[in-house]
Amino acid sequence: MKSQTRSEPEVITIDVHKANHLLRNGDYRYLDVRTKEEFMKGHVDFDDALNIPYMFVTHQGRVKNENFLEQVLSLCNKGDHLVVGCQSGIRSVYASNILLEAGFKNVYNMGGGYVAWVENDLPVLTPKLEL
């Protein structure tokens, strides 16, 4: 007999084309979990894009943002529909998992991240740098 284990929410990964479709035609928000520096170099062109880093770059290397969930909850509700992306699709898996474990129901991880988005010639916004 199989032992009962607690059911963990499963991260669902979608490709950039599906992500683009959901963002343009659904009630989804884009949550970019890259660093602010990465975000400012260019990001998914979507009016309501949020940037809440999952990790920070420090002198010791990358460090997890201990306030990530709290920061997301200050801007989003657990019922919001989110597409979570990062640079290549790794950090966004971890971030999506945290959100699902916290009770978010409508979360998709964008596979391949910003790199795949750019490679597929999808719309990009590059903020103007202040001189």
From TrEMBL:
Coiled-coil residue windows: none
Molecular function (Gene Ontology), one example: catalytic activity
Rhodanese domain ranges (all copies): 24-126
CDD domains for this protein: RHOD
Pfam families membership: Rhodanese (PF00581)
Protein name as annotated: Rhodanese domain-containing protein
Organism: Mikania micrantha
